[in-house]
Amino acid sequence: MRFDLATSHFVDADVDPDAFAVIGSERNLSWRELANASEAWCEAARAKGFAADVPVIVRGDKEAEFVVAMVGALMLGAPYVPIDTVYPDERMQRIARTLDAHAYYDTRTRAFVPLRDGMAPNALRETHLAYIMFTSGTTGEPKGVQIGRESVNALIDWMHHFKLGTAPVFLNLVPFSFDVSMYEVFGMLSSGGTVVLTERSPLESGASPVVRAAEHNVTTWVSTPSFAQRQLLDSRFSAQGLPTLRTFLFCGEVLPVGLVRALRTRFPDVRLINTYGPTEATVATTWIVIDDEVLARHSPLPIGYANREGQVFVDDDELCIVGPHVMRGYLNRDDLNATRMFTRNGMRGFRTGDLGSAGDDGLLFCHGRIDDQVKLTGYRIELMEIDAALCELPGDAPAAAVPLRRPDGSVARIVGFVETGEGDWRLPDALRDWQARLAERLPSYMIPSELIGCRALPVSANFKIDRARLAEDYRGGHFKAVTHAAQPE
Ligand code: AMP
C-alpha cells in the first residue's frame, strides 16, 4: 500500500497491507493500520472544528501517532504544524498565537488540547498547504514557512532520482519540527516503504540508533552529517553492523570530507548523497552522489545540481532558488516575503542567504551564510533570536550570542555575553538562574553553554555587536577567569 498525496487516499490496498509502515516509539503500524488510524484521526479532528486550510499543531516526539496525525491532516486538507517536545511550552504558545490556533493535538496522550475557548477555528489565507514548519527567526519570533501541496509533490517526484529502491526502510533521526524529516515521511508514504522513528530520549541516554537501524533492516539512513559523525565512535556503525543499508542521505549542513572518507572506509558499497536546501524550498533543492571521483576532485565538497522543474542560480554571490517547491511565503511576514521572495518565469523564487558559486558545468557549491544564521549539530539557529532572549533576562542589558567555530568553520558551541557595566566580569546575582529562564523560551539546542558578564560589548565599524571580536577574545583567554557553567566542547 501507499499514500497518494494528489488524491489524499491510500491506494494499492492489495499490495502488502500488513507490511510495516511505521515503527514508532510507542507502537508499530502496518499499512492497513496506518490507513484506519489516519481516517479515524481525520474524523476526530473534524469533530473538534478542524477543516481544510485550518492549521493543526501536532506536538510530540517519535510516536507512530505523530505520523497518523500528519497523514490525517493531509486527508483533511488541514496543514499540519509539527512541534517537537524539544520546544518549551512558551515557544509552542507563541507559535499557536501566530497561527491563531484554537487547539493542538498531543501525540503522547492522543488528545486535542484546547488553547482558547469559544472561538471558531480560523482558516489561513493560503489554501492547499501541506504543512507549516517554524524555524528560528531574527526578531525573536519563530517564522512559519508555508509549504504548499504542489511543493511536496515536487519533492516526491524529485526523490525518484535518488533511486532508493522499492519499499525502502528509512531511519528517521531528526525531530519532525526539522524539515529534513519530511524526506522519510514522504519517502515512506509515496513508496509504500517503512519509517523507523528513533526517540530523542534514548539517543540522549546513549542508546544506539545503530542498533535500532539494524533491528529493523534499515536501507536508507537520513540525517545531518553531524549526527553520522557521532556514530563513528560506535564500532557497530559499519557495513557488517548494518548489512541492509544501501544509502546515506545527508542534508542540513556542510558535509565534511573527513566524514565521507570515514564512511567510504566503513561502508564501501553504500551510496552517499549530499543534498542541500533551506526549509523554504521543501527539504532540499540540489543533490549529488559523492563517489570516489567527486571526493578526489573536490574539497570542500559540492552541493550538486538542481534536478527540479525549477533552477538554482547565483546572484551577487547568493544562491537563489526558483521552482514549484519554493514556499508560498512566511506566515504573516509580508516584510520578509517582500525582500526574500521574487517571481521568475512565473515561478516562485527565494533568496537563500547562502553564499554560493557555480562551476562551468553548473556544479554548485555553498560557502556559508551572508547573515547571522548558524547550524549547530544540524539545528538552524538565528543568533538574533538568542540575542533577543538574552536581552530579556533580568536587567534588560544588551547581550549577544557568539558562535565558537572549529577550524573547519562548523560551530562547536554558542557562548552568551551580557553587558554588566562597571565592575568585574562576574554576572550579577539576578542572572544566577539564566539557564532556567532561557529554557522557558528557547529549545535546549539554542541555550548558550556559558553566559559571561562583559563590561561593554564591542561594536564593529557599522555599530553592530562585534561577535567575531568576542569570539577572538574568548579564544585568547580574555574571559578565562570568569566563565560560568562551562561545558566541555
Ligand atoms: P534548514 O532550513 O534547517 O534545512 O537549513 C538550511 C540551511 O542549512 C541552508 O540555507 C544552508 O545554509 C545549510 N545547508 C543545508 N544543507 C547544506 C549542505 N548540504 N551543505 C552546506 N550547507 C547546507
Please provide a brief summary of the model:
The protein is of the alpha/beta class and 489 residues long.
What structural class results from the helix and strand content?
Answer: alpha/beta
Please bin the fraction of helical residues: 25-40%
What is the class of the largest domain in the CATH system?
Alpha Beta
Radius of gyration: 23 Å
- β content, as a range? 25-35%
CATH superfamily label of the largest domain: ANL, N-terminal domain
CATH architecture of the largest domain: 3-Layer(aba) Sandwich
Kindly give the count of domains.
2
Structural account:
- The protein is an alpha/beta fold.
- The chain folds into two domains: 2-358, ANL, N-terminal domain (Rossmann fold, 3-Layer(aba) Sandwich), CATH 3.40.50; 377-475, ANL, C-terminal domain (GMP Synthetase, Chain A, domain 3, 2-Layer Sandwich).
- Helices cover 26% and strands 27% of the residues.
- The chain is built from 14 helices and 27 strands.
- The strands form seven sheets. It has an eight-stranded mixed β-sheet. Strands 17, 18, 20, 21 and 22 form a five-stranded antiparallel β-sheet that branches.
- Adenosine monophosphate is lined by residues 135, 179, 251-255, 274, 276, 278-279, 303, 352, 354, 366, 369, 375, 380.
